[in-house]
Amino acid sequence: MTSSGSYVVPTETNIEHYRATARAWLESHAPRYGEEARRGLSEDEDLALGRAWMALKYDAGYSGINWPKEHGGQGLGPLEKVAFEEEEMRFGFPTGYFAVSLGMPVPIVLRYLTGEWVLDRAKAALRGEEIWCQLFSEPSGGSDLAGLRMRASFDEATGEWHLDGQKLWTSYAQYSDYGIIVARSDPTVAKHKGLTYFWVDMRSAGVTVRPIKLADGSHHVNEVFFDNVRVPDSQRLGRIGDGFKVAIETLVIERHHASDPAGFGPALDLFVAESAEPDANGVSLLDDGRVRERVARNYALQNGLRAIQARGQLMLGLGIEPGQEGAINKLVAARARQRLSEFVLDARGTSGMVWNRGVRSNDWVGSWLTVPTARQAGGSDEMLLNTIAERILDLPQDHRPDKGVPFNQIPK
Amino acid sequence: MALIYDDAQRQIADECERILKAGFSGPALKELLEPTGQYDEGFWQLCVEQGWTAIAVPEEFGGLGLGLSEQGIVALACGKAACGAPFLTTGYGVVEALKRFGSEAQQAAWLPRLAAGEAKGVICFSEGRAMLPDVPAVRFDNGRLTGTKQAVPGGAAGNVGVILAASAEGPVLVLADLNGAETERRILPTFDNSRVAADLSFNGASAELLTGHGHDAAKTILRLLAVVIAHEQVGGAEEVLAWARSYAVERRAFGQPLAAFQSIKHRLAENYTAIELARGNCQYAAHHADDPHFARFAAAARISAIDAYDMAARDAMQVFGGLGGTWEADLHLHQRRARTLALEFGNSMFWEDDLVGELRRAN
Description:
A: alpha+beta; B: four-stranded antiparallel β-sheet; 11 helices
């Protein structure tokens, strides 16, 4: 979300001061809301704790940091937002439920709607009282967003749209009050051109949410079925047929966010500490050159990402939009996390099979089990490589046989 | 020194690249590949004329008093040009050794000459497979050196060397004028002959002690040098990726440009990724030269730059098809240089060990 006009890019000193203040505040609340407080909670209890945490942040002025003040935010910029997120990440607060909601759906509706109702929604979302989901991917494809099949047919008599179809991989749909959705309003034109964008009330008749159990047993993603769900035309965002444009606009809203060189897996330091410990014979894992090689290579990857991120932050501080090299972040971080997590289990021998399900920060088994999803979510490795090739290296687009073909004539 | 280059630094980068690009000649560089002991004198003169030899030397000794970022910027441009002499970077190593471990007299004697390009500095630490031998075979006793350093980069033409030697007090760093009769050079045939590697045999050559514990001081120099060379590697990798990219866009097969095939696109995108990680590490290390964790950053830069250059050179040859392996196509200049730079001043195993040693110390 763009910051309001009055925002002044902070100096390095000011940003460090902001960070230090935020960190002290976060530290003081970590015992009640952080990683340790969450241990052993049921998901409902954890979500409740999360809602309380969001409300506390709202009251303390740490909500919607880079949102305009008129939307209930703090009117600050990406530097403060990222600094806060980086600090917040260290303590394992229950923020995951709200990340999509505040990252994309709520900012996009704030762009397209005005008035009291949407401001109330923004406040409720910031306080964690309401959650929004993003209904984009479908069983027919995730990467090929414009190939979606959810139908939107307009009923002239009632002035309502009828939505029919299925969405997939919708994060936290089971807790969501509202959602944003793209659907096909005209199958007779090329796939990018026949889409229209809406917001929907997730409690509408005909909406069914079914959680999907992932490989590690968690179920934060869902299938969402729409069976003749009626949506008034006033819930349309953008013009009829502009759905793809609004979807892309949605996806680029959150350009600036904290990234984790460890790919949101455990920190390398933990493995270094573990493998530096001597065993009963006085031998430690780090005495083995193969272990040292893995550690050193992982460190070099993570430090490279840290360097790119730090450079990007400095550029933002100077009012320059960072280069596109940030695009490699997730690609590298997720793969590196996968290799390291596998190796940590390997290095432990048969005891590597033991899984004491714990909090994420030191759960190498959980990290390894869930990382295949991380290599898909937010763009698969293959799509990211294509993006680098086409956008940065300016190489030709892939051959796309469905280009310009009316959607209903594309072979299924 | 900056993580983002300031105007002056950008100017140095642009200027270096412009000059070196204008002077780049594949045929001329290839003439240096087969004979032994010959380097590109024209390139060296350019380094002197442009003041690149003076970059790291303090102003009071006739230098420009610039830091690691600027050394890296120049090295990156040299890497792009697959430059035909090693002395610029090895000279930086000698300058840093003098700045940190030299006496005032030693500094006064050598820094002005190094800045003016009248002396070529070389680093003589390794012996055989060991980058830093525990007990060096080269000995320093009563002001005299004995023993042989093998395959010293630039050894055929260096005038002044910083040498790791054993002594009665343990390993030490010493400074020696290499032009005396008691130093014998045996020029070696290598796969990248313009590096003018040579065995240096000391038969009682006089040398002067530098301060500092031998291994610690040697590591300090190697880490600084690692960051400079990593920049050079990034430059080479960037250039060879650009060649591969151009070829892939122009060359057509099966009715479309090579660059339209995903196998080629992804290969090039992976190269770009590896290069940007290495570049990030390089800039970060140069920016943090005085940081307590500099050693880790330097090793990370070196490890990722070795990888990036090797990978880019290897993959470019693959993209070029059969042509890639020909003498004509010039790609082997980068294939060779990628490996030379990977071996000189610590291979990846050395830097992995150094890095993990540093991480372990923190635990």
